[in-house]
Specification:
By secondary structure, the chain is of the alpha/beta class. It has one domain: Rossmann fold (3-Layer(aba) Sandwich). The protein contains seven helices and six strands, in the order βαββαβααββααα. A six-stranded parallel sheet has the order 3-2-1-4-5-6, with helices on both faces. Helix 1 links the parallel strand 1 and strand 2. Helix 1 packs across helix 5. It starts with 26 loop residues before the first strand and ends with a helix. 31% of the residues are buried.
Length: 212
């Protein structure tokens, strides 16, 4: 292999559409997490325990994290939703009526090679988020299009800042939406895939001609 293509994860804004915002009695903090995020579970448990001890919020998880893994959280503090089919996934996230999203990653090589997709999904639904300060989220401008946190203490601090400041939540949500609409929009980024496939097709034809 003498060439590699890296294409940005992009959002279909025809699918990811925010629902009209409802006022929640308790702010709802969301985390979409598959079983691959079990490496983050202990960090998340510690962060959320500190948040829940200070604020009246509900921790909402969409994914397949087992309830038993969250044994330091009480039933009235947490809300679990199983993953749904991809065809209704955007609607499901929108229906959760989240006030804040989180995207924590443990600092390891595999996670450094991930993309910004989780932040983009939150942003497309106008949900402000706190993300880990690692390579996938270097596109997030701290305090403008999201909050970046290096440590658990910073996660707690920046989540608290969003919890206490509804105007900041709205401002970051709108900024993040616009940033993703401009830079991670499937409608405008589709040409990258077209160029990639056309280049692969040309190179394949040349290879076959040389082989004969």
């Amino acid at each position: 292999m003498d060439r590699m293509y890296v294409l940005p994860n992009s959002i279909d804004f025809e699918l990811f559409k925010p629902f009209p915002k409802k006022d929640n009695k308790k702010l709802r903090i969301g985390w979409t997490a598959s079983a691959s995020h079990m490496v983050e579970i202990f960090m998340v448990k510690r962060i959320m325990r500190r948040i829940l001890d200070k604020y009246k919020v509900t921790f909402v998880i969409l994914g397949d994290i087992a309830r038993e893994a969250l044994n330091n959280l009480k039933d009235d503090e947490i809300e679990l939703h199983p993953f749904v089919d991809l065809s209704v996934y955007p609607l499901k996230i929108a229906s959760l009526n989240l006030d804040i999203g989180i995207a924590p990653l443990r600092d390891e090589k595999f996670n450094r090679c991930k993309s910004q997709l989780k932040w983009s999904e939150y942003s497309a639904l106008k949900i402000p988020s706190v993300v880990s300060d690692l390579e996938p989220y270097y596109c997030v401008e701290d305090g403008v299009t999201g909050m970046r946190a290096k440590t658990e203490d910073e996660f707690v601090e920046k989540m608290g800042c969003l919890i206490e400041n509804p105007a900041l939540r709205s401002e970051i949500a709108e900024n993040a939406y616009q940033k993703n609409y401009e830079d991670f929009n499937l409608e405008t980024n589709i040409y990258l895939w077209v160029d990639c496939y056309e280049d692969c097709s040309r190179r394949l034809r040349v290879y076959r001609q040389k082989a004969h």
